[in-house]
Specification:
Blueprint lengths: L1 E5 L4 H10 L7 H10 L2 E7 L5 E9 L4 E9 L8 H14 L9 E4 L6 H6 L25
Parallel strand pairs: 4-5
Antiparallel strand pairs: 1-2, 2-3, 3-4
């Protein structure tokens, strides 16, 4: 059985989930910023093993834009609806601060090949006739001036 909690993972468990899907290793400072700087973290736990099997973080300003970061489900748990449940809980959390008539932009960066999963969960791929493409760049310590 899977249990969902609004709780921040300790560093080692957060890094373990990232490693389970082959993501880049982060420095201690980056991990602290990710865990402590997000607005909320939702975690999925296997109640039989007591281990975390998934998580997602919310970052943003809470009223204009919120972004899902680090949506992770251990590969051995794929196909069980865990990712969709994490998204549902993150959507609910993001919408909590809205007052009647307000709209929040709810975004994410999608890993290549995962587009259908996110579309199935209510997201639209960009560009569209109304919205331009998403853009990204990476900054490195040597870029600092």
């Amino acid at each position: 059985m899977i249990e969902y909690k609004y709780t921040r993972l300790p560093k080692d468990l957060y890094l373990g989930l990232r490693a389970s899907v082959g993501w880049k290793h982060l420095s201690d400072r980056q991990v602290d910023a990710a865990i402590n700087g997000c607005k909320a973290m939702v975690t999925a736990w296997d109640t039989e093993t007591g281990e975390p099997v998934g998580m997602g973080r919310l970052v943003g300003d809470e009223l204009v834009i919120m972004n899902i970061q680090d949506l992770i489900v251990r590969p051995s748990y794929h196909g069980r609806g865990i990712g969709s449940q994490l998204i549902r809980l993150l959507k609910e959390k993001a919408a909590e601060a809205l007052e009647p008539g307000e709209e929040l932009m709810f975004t994410l960066m999608c890993a290549k090949g995962r587009e259908r999963f996110y579309e199935k969960n209510g997201f639209i791929a960009r560009p569209t006739p109304e919205l331009g493409p998403g853009m990204i760049t990476y900054l490195h310590s040597e870029d600092k001036k």
